[in-house]
Amino acid sequence: MGLTAVLDWLEKEENGANVVGVGHRVVHGGPIYAEPVLMDDATFARLKSFEPLAPLHQPYNLAGIEAAREAFPMAAQVACFDTAFHRRHPFIADTYALPREYYDEGVRRYGFHGLSYEFIHRILRHEEPVLARGKVAVAHLGNGASMCAIKSGKSVGSTMGFTALDGLPMGTRCGQLDPGVVLYLMAEKKMSAAEITDLLYKNSGLKGMSGISNDVRELEASNEQSAKDALDYFVSRVRRNLGGLCAELGGLDCLVLTGGIGENAANVRKAILENLEWFGIQIDFDANARNERIISEKGSPTVVLILKTDEERMIAAHTAELLNLKQPLVPAIT
Ligand code: AMP
């Protein structure tokens, strides 16, 4: 259902709907917000000050809040952040090797996709409480892609950093890149900041590498070598980052795959997870091909699960919880 249909439905008196709260996905909570927050003017101004940290997303998120305030003036507006789940990272996982003043002014590894990780971890706590208490890696593999290390329920590391460009290659974003490449593009190719932004956010990743598409289904259907190269690169970066996160965790009890690719692309999952028996990952490839919930062999030291993420439901749950509405939209934190 589109937003207009929802608004039309809400406006009809006979439906008896009373909007008491509107939850918003806001990409950046800066160094401050580790939890969702009820919007007031001061908070709005603070979130606006984070626009330079996420110029492609934050202004649109805030425009949504302004529109909702106008449409539902009596309702509470709740901002839920993609960065919040990662806000308790230890300093070492949060900083770059730059002079300290840059960290202090906010140049940090924020990490994103936090609402997805939080949702997955709540589901895990509910369905697999023993695993959830251990060392967990979650791979959110969709058009945007990142991975997160979670220890005893807390995020301890993420592949994304200061912006949502870092880490894994994505549909159209480059993922990890030597900053020297950016210097080269500026100095030798005379590219402007806007041109480089366009290249790295919109014309790189699977789309840029393949020259065909950002969609894994199209790349899998293609016979072009460039499509195969793009998928192979994606797989190799996921595997490399998995190794790094496991070192950070000191082991791995559970690996969860989620997002459009993680939930559906059985061949990509197979390529990511094969030949990792030495690492403690023993995959049941038939279960993988059938997209089953558990795709590791019985007795595999690491249990591998496919779980469907739902960031919107997480936002609705946060909003309901903040407003003390008793609706268990997602199993609550106990
Ligand atoms: P998301 O951003 O999480 O919605 O993921 C979107 C991406 O998931 C798409 O661009 C595809 O690359 C991938 N995807 C979705 N369904 C499938 C599928 N059945 N097989 C392979 N990839 C898929």
TrEMBL record:
GO cellular component terms, semicolon-separated: cytosol
GO BP term (any one): acetyl-CoA biosynthetic process
Subcellular compartments: Cytoplasm
Positions contributing to Mg(2+) binding: E311
Keywords: ATP-binding, Cytoplasm, Kinase, Magnesium, Metal-binding, Nucleotide-binding, Transferase
Entry-linked SUPFAM superfamilies: Actin-like ATPase domain
Residues that, per the record, bind substrate: R25
InterPro entries: Ac/propionate_kinase, Aliphatic_acid_kin_short-chain, Aliphatic_acid_kinase_CS, ATPase_NBD
Cofactor(s) required for function per UniProt: Mg(2+); Mn(2+)
Positions of the catalytic residues: D82 (proton donor/acceptor)
Pathway the protein takes part in: Metabolic intermediate biosynthesis; acetyl-CoA biosynthesis; acetyl-CoA from acetate: step 1/2
Assigned EC number: 2.7.2.1
Catalytic reaction equation(s): acetate + ATP = acetyl phosphate + ADP
UniProt enzyme class: transferase
Predominant location category: cytoplasm
Binding site for ATP: H140, L141, G142, N143, G144, D215, V216, R217, G260, I261, G262, E263, N264
Family: Belongs to the acetokinase family.
Subunit composition and interactions: Homodimer.
Function: Catalyzes the formation of acetyl phosphate from acetate and ATP. Can also catalyze the reverse reaction.
Name of the protein described by the UniProt record: Acetate kinase
